[in-house]
Amino acid sequence: MRQFSRFFVPVLGFCMIVMIGCGKNDARYSKIEGVITYNQQPVEGATVTFSPVNYVDGAEPAAGRTDASGRYTLTSSGAVSGGTGILPGEYSVVVKKTTAAPDPDDVAFSAGKITYDELQARKAKSNRSPVITHLVPEKYGRSSTSGLKATVVSGKNPPFDFDLAN
Questions:
Q1: pLDDT of residue 81
Q2: Are 50 and 72 in contact (CB under 8 A)?
Q3: Which of 32, 62, 100, 115, by CA, is between 20 and 30 Å from 83?
Q4: What digits encode the pLDDT tens for the residues 85-140?
Q5: What ranges make up the beta strands (E) of the chain?
Q6: CA 103 from centroid of its chain's CA atoms
Q7: CATH 2.60.40.1120 placement within the chain
Q8: In the prediction, which pLDDT does 90 show?
Q9: Separation between Cα atoms, residue 162 and residue 147, nearest integer Å
């Protein structure tokens, strides 16, 4: 029993120190969450990006993806706690949700109507761009046209909810 406690107590102490150290947040970053709706309906699978209006004091963009209820949480590369958070400041906000139409040659290959070599030959000759469909109005996908803004303060912020409309 004595050997067990000589081994167990130091290992337990080390684990506690590691857990406390890993859970330490960078107090400069504020956790930002919100909900994206389009015509008052939740938007699933949209990318929400906050870009600093002025890149000062290490400001950086942060992004998140909406879930089935339209909820998002921003992450940034500089935040310590799993990337969650953003520095205080003024941000322009963009919301994008797009889909690309399947390439007809890829569809033909998947259906077994053409061979792999035929597919590659068609792709080499083609300069087709994928047809992109915007599932929320395209204006929300650019900071110059979205009209969406956010002011992030130090500490706790209210949810940044945006209801997009035509």
A1: 61
A2: no
A3: 100
A4: 898 999 999 999 999 888 899 999 999 999 999 999 998 998 888 888 889 999 99
A5: 33-38, 41-42, 47-52, 62-65, 71-73, 89-96, 98-100, 132-134, 148-152, 162-164
A6: 26
A7: 27-95+138-164
A8: 94
A9: 11
- Residue 71, pLDDT score: 98
Cβ atoms of residues 81 and 124 within 8 Å? no
Taking the C-alpha atoms of residue 107 and residue 102, their distance in angstroms, rounded to an integer, is: 7
3-state helix, strand, coil in the chain (%, to 5): 30, 30, 45
Whether 47 contacts 93, CB under 8 Å? no
Task: Supply φ then ψ for residue 92, to 5 degrees.
Answer: -95, 145
27-95+138-164 classified as CATH 3.40.50.2300? no
The tokens describing 76, both together, are 């940034």
Q: What angle do CA 73, 78, 79 make, to 5 degrees?
A: 50
Q: What digits encode the pLDDT tens for the residues 6-22?
A: 544 444 444 443 343 44
